[in-house]
Design a protein that fits this description.
290 residues, mainly alpha, di-copper center containing domain from catechol oxidase, two-stranded parallel sheet, 7 helices, 31% helix, 2% strand, binds copper (I) ion
């Protein structure tokens, strides 16, 4: 039986409590920080050598799908009733909207050092010490909406611009791919600064603090954000119809192509797992979105 991932704005008080409780228990056991480390390890960009799996690559979507499944399985070992909720940032668009309540993720950081002061992940609670980070400080940080340089969350229209593209991804299969659903959703645009951050990337920037960069998993909103990104992949498949919407590239780039051995093709395994993008395209037997 497939389980259901719900819109975070529809969770009951009990569901919020159990989700938070399971996260805190994983943190207490040391399992949570393994997820943070894995994400940092796989944070490879265009400018670096080697295979890119998690970001700036076609496998951005299947990589994070599997990463969420691993976290969800860990949560369910603590409490079998828990699933990862999704945050629809086209609807819940303010710093006081659904995910940011006192009994779920808490709110923004204070002005001086972006330290989160409210909710279960605030330093004051003592249960959410940051251990894997590139910045100083052992407390979670956020700057919702970027107080000094305000930035708006992506709109429904911004998301539709990605969802309307009928091709999964295009050469050169990286952050400069000007077309293709994957990069329009991942959100590496042209230009510099605010204008270049689209959809998924813009949301990381809007949250700010730890959500910017490789250590973003330190903020539990990471999972709610990526559950929605994952939902968008399903929505895109439905919008364009089965068959036309397969993962690309179907085959590895040719010899001599600069992207050869840098990206994962449809039937190649996706590190650190022993699965292929092909095997991750359909999640309907595992979970559904409500
Ligand atoms: Cu990521
Ligand atoms: Cu992300």
């Amino acid at each position: 039986m497939a389980y259901t991932r719900k819109d975070v704005s529809t969770l009951t008080r009990g569901e919020r409590r159990r989700f938070v409780g399971a996260l805190l228990e994983l943190k207490r056991r040391g399992e949570y920080d393994e997820f943070v480390r894995t994400h940092i390890e796989y944070y490879v960009s265009d400018g670096e050598d080697g295979l890119r799996t998690a970001h700036m690559a076609p496998s951005f979507l299947p990589w994070h799908r599997h990463f969420l499944l691993d976290l969800e399985a860990a949560l369910q070992r603590v409490d079998a009733s828990v699933t990862v909720p999704y945050w629809d940032w086209t609807r819940d668009r303010t710093a006081t909207a659904a995910p940011w309540s006192e009994d779920l993720l808490g709110g923004t950081g204070r002005r001086s050092d972006q330290r989160v002061m409210t909710g279960p992940f605030a330093r004051g609670h003592g249960d959410w010490t940051i251990r894997e980070s590139v910045t100083d400080g052992d407390f979670l940080t956020r700057d919702l909406g970027r107080a000094r340089e305000p930035l708006a969350l992506p709109t429904r229209q911004d998301l539709d611009w990605a969802l309307d593209d009928p091709v999964y991804d295009v050469s050169p299969w990286n952050s400069t791919s000007a077309k293709g659903f994957r990069n329009k959703l991942e959100g590496w645009g042209s230009g510099r600064g605010v204008r270049s951050w689209r959809n998924h990337n813009r949301v990381h920037r809007w949250v700010g603090g730890h959500m910017v960069g490789g250590a973003s998993v330190n903020d539990p909103v990471f999972w709610l954000h990526h559950a929605f990104v994952d939902l968008c992949w399903s929505r895109w498949q439905r919008r364009h119809g089965a068959g036309a919407t397969r993962y690309l590239p179907a085959e590895p780039p040719e010899f001599g192509d600069a992207q050869r051995d840098r990206v994962v093709a449809r039937h190649e395994t996706l590190p650190p797992w022993d699965v292929t993008p092909d095997q991750l395209e359909d999640h309907s037997q595992i979970y559904r979105y409500a």
